[in-house]
Amino acid sequence: DVVMTQSPLSLPVTLGQPASISCRSGQSLVHTDGNTYFSWFQQRPGQSPRRLIYKVSNRDSGVPDRFSGSGSGTDFTLEISRVEAEDVGVYYCMQGTHWPRTFGQGTKLEIK
Amino acid sequence: EVQLVESGGGLVQPGGSLSLSCVVSGFTFSNFWMHWVRQAPGKAPVWISDISPDESTTGYVASVRGRFTISRDNAKNTLYLHMNNLRADDTAVYYCVRDESRSLDYWGQGALVTVSS
Known about the structure:
The structure holds two protein chains of two kinds.
Chain A: E1 4-7, E2 10-13, E3 19-25, E4 38-43, E5 50-54, E6 58-59, E7 67-72, E8 75-80, E9 89-95, E10 102-103, E11 107-111
Parallel strand pairs in A: 2-11
Antiparallel strand pairs in A: 1-3, 3-8, 4-5, 4-9, 5-6, 7-8, 9-10, 9-11
Chain B: E1 3-7, E2 10-12, E3 18-25, E4 34-39, E5 46-51, E6 58-60, E7 68-73, E8 78-83, E9 92-100, E10 103-107, E11 111-115
Parallel strand pairs in B: 2-11
Antiparallel strand pairs in B: 1-3, 3-8, 4-5, 4-9, 5-6, 7-8, 9-10, 9-11
């Protein structure tokens, strides 16, 4: 199985400041069809996970544009340009290129 | 509006069985791969099973293979997970999830399964 490693695991951020989460995969996530099937999810306290980003950099409908995804191959980043209170929660990366789907261990974002 | 609503969770003794259902609405169920993902308390989600739109192909994570069975009824817009020989480490919230672009775009609210004597 492809191991997904996130860092940091804990991320205290001041309101209005930027935040960045890294995710590294154990092997390239470039599919034979040329796409890279990598996603980011947000899980607010007490809620189900919600997809934010798919195929590395595509934002889902309704996701604020302060969220952006980037990366390629094995290294990926989620950036929040200005953290707001509603961004508190745990963020997970996930790969869909290789079977089975695998998730990172999560990054807990909190407000300082 | 896309909705996925799980039911059937509860408390079961080790070695027991339980079945989960997920009724979906707001999209053409028969066009999509579907998944079950579980999340133990305080842990990351773990993919456990998927099924093709026509039910011809199914997959399972090694830890549940042979004990869990995924199925669907496209006429009823319903996804199922039948779980046998449950163990304590199967305790988790079980989510029904839709597949889109080899990702998981819509999640249900989850069904809590607790395996304990």
